[in-house]
Design goal:
Distance between the termini: 56 Å
Number of strands: 16
Order of helices and strands: EEHEHEHEEHHEHHEEEEHEEEEEH
Strand content: 15-25%
Largest sheet: 7 strands, mixed
Helix content: 10-25%
Structural class: alpha+beta
Radius of gyration: 19 Å
Length: about 300
């Protein structure tokens, strides 16, 4: 069966991103031709889904490595946390190491609530995420969708004056910024030291498509060279603009979905579900950006 790419016809008019790939068994070794076809689909649509049964962790890691090196440090909370899944993957779930639901006050559950904020994976790390590949092992019967916004279309829709204002600005990203919005501040000293704030441009050129796009996340806390309040308003206004309904696609999960997105030109967020009743077990492989694009550590913020 040949590999085909079909845009989602239920996406709101004008969104122009998100597609389904068929004819590809992700549990089998991926040849160069199929890999290049997936990359081409991501360059055009930014978000793709491949449906099927859940795959093994080994198969997911092997598939992801065909697209580049993977993140080595998977997970922000490392102090007294027992891993439930392979260290090559990120545990995006509401489950503990015994596969039981996390308690309401569990530190992992409170941290993971931050996934409901609009964000870009690993923008707060020196080498950010290129592709995220999330496989659904258990899905709740209702809720728990994932939403995406197209940062290329959002940039295209900005007025010329705003583009001129923000084009050369640099934002400071830090995991403590996003979690601080929800009142989560129980990072250990080791966790703080491992992830100092980093500097990233607010506007960049997406390598795959050559289009300019915004680069934002709830991890972005201020803008260099601007008073903190002014910088935060710039970030707030841009995020409000980028997450308008006309730029947003909502993915409703099916068991076994492998959802892949390009973090360089999208933001995403998880939607709520009843975490006290239902399990949601997702496992993410994270392909790194080119190491040459490593962010500069913001020494002033780190010292603060």
């Amino acid at each position: 069966m040949p590999l085909t790419v079909t845009p989602f016809d239920h996406a709101p008019a004008g969104i122009g991103f998100a597609a389904e790939i068929t004819g590809l068994d992700v549990a089998q070794p991926l040849d160069d031709e199929a890999r290049d076809a997936v990359v081409a689909a991501l360059d055009e649509y930014a978000v793709v889904v491949i449906r099927g049964a859940p795959i093994s962790e080994e198969a997911q890691v092997a598939f992801a490595r065909r697209f580049g090196p993977l993140e080595a440090n998977n997970g922000v909370l490392n102090t007294d946390i027992k891993r439930r899944i392979s260290p090559d993957l990120v545990d995006v779930s509401n489950l503990d190491e015994d596969h039981a639901l996390l308690g309401r006050e569990d530190r992992r559950r409170l941290f993971n609530l931050g996934n409901r904020l609009w964000h870009t994976d690993s923008s707060f790390k020196r080498i950010a995420a290129k592709y995220s590949m999330l496989n659904a092992h258990t899905v709740p019967p209702e809720g728990g969708e994932t939403q995406f916004c197209d940062m290329r279309a959002a940039w295209d829709a900005l007025d010329p004056a705003t583009r001129d204002t923000v084009r050369d600005l640099i934002a400071v990203h830090c995991i403590r910024t996003s979690r601080g919005l929800l009142g989560f501040d129980t990072f250990s000293d080791a966790e703080r030291a491992a992830l100092p704030p980093v500097r990233r441009p607010l506007v960049r050129v997406h390598p795959g498509s050559g289009r300019e796009c915004l680069y934002l996340a709830s991890h972005a806390g201020h803008v260099l060279g601007r008073p903190v309040a002014e910088g935060r308003l710039i970030i707030h206004d841009l995020m409000e603009h980028a997450t308008q309904a006309r730029f947003v696609f909502t993915h409703s999960w099916r068991l076994g979905d492998l959802l892949i997105w390009d973090n360089r030109c999208t933001m995403h967020r998880a939607r709520p579900f009843d975490t006290a009743r239902y399990k949601r077990d997702m496992r993410r492989a994270t392909v790194l950006e080119d190491a040459a694009l490593a962010a500069e550590v913001d020494d002033e913020s780190a010292a603060a």
